[in-house]
Design brief:
Layout lengths: L4 E3 L8 E4 L2 H10 L7 E5 L4 E9 L6 E9 L7 E6 L4 H14 L3 E6 L10 H14 L7 E2 L3 E2 H4 L7 E5 L7 E2 L9 E5 L7 H9 L3 E4 L7 H13 L1
Parallel strand pairs: 1-3, 6-7, 6-12, 7-8, 7-9, 10-12, 10-13, 11-13
Antiparallel strand pairs: 2-5, 3-4, 4-5
Helix pairs in contact: 2-3, 2-6
Length: 232
Amino acid sequence: MQVPFFYEAVLPDQPGIFTLSEDTSKHCVQVLRMNEGAIISLTNGKGIQYIATILSPNKNQTVVTLANKLFDEQTKPINSIAISFVKNASRMEWFLEKVTEIGIAHIYPLTTERTEKSNFKLERWESILVSAMLQSKQVWKPILHEPTIFMNFVSKRFEGNKMIAHCENDNMLSIPSMAKNNHQLILIGPEGDFTTKEIELAISNNFIPVSLGNTRLRTETAGIVASVLLQN
């Protein structure tokens, strides 16, 4: 039987006695019906993982003892994706779930000239990232950044390969041809693509045009394809 895996945003540096959050306590006691002596696993989404034993089950404040602290170094290089909001909220949520499972480290929501809606739901989106991290048995949660206007974002400093995926017929590289020993960031546009002005601005800020294949993809699909190619 697999050990249940939970998220606690703040974990101590050293093993010892620890009180679970109310959400984790309720899941352990009311949903899983766990009793004293049951074993669970905890992560803070920043590489730390503990094995914990329940000392005092309580639906509001379950007390555990932490042991066997592990730290998993984050996979290098780090891959990031900056993507336009999409009109359909459920499609954006699907994207967030999948790129977490794939292992993307940073997610930057973008507002571009052709972005139709910019509905940023921080609490819900963070919940999706946590669920996807736990489901995929990872101990690093992607960092979800505040929404940024495209024209401001492309001028920010980034150490590594900077790419922009678009549909104009320019000379474009494929992502697998890029050097993989550097951190990587890719821009994904809205339905209707980036404007010519935006593409030119990105290129002037050292973003390299790349292709995601021969078919025209939805924004969220393009984000998934790009994420897989970055991680491989």
